[in-house]
Amino acid sequence: MKKKMTALLMVSVMAASLMACGGKSADSSAAAPADSAVSAPASTAAPASEAASVPAASEAAEAESDLAYVQQKGKLVVGITDFEPMDYRGEDGDWIGFDADMAKAFGESLGVEVEFVEIDWDNKILELDGKTIDCVWNGMTLTDEVTSAMECSNPYFNNAQVVILPSDVAEDYESVEDLADLTFAVESGSAGEAVIADLEYDYIPVKAQSDALMEVAAGTSDAAVIDLLMAMAMTGEDTSYEDLTYTIELNSEEYGVGFRKGSDLAAVLDEYFAAAYEDGTMAEIAEEYGIDAEAALIEQ
Question: Which of 43, 80, 112, 226 qualifies as a FRET site for 245, CA 20 to 30 Å off?
Answer without folding.
Answer: 80
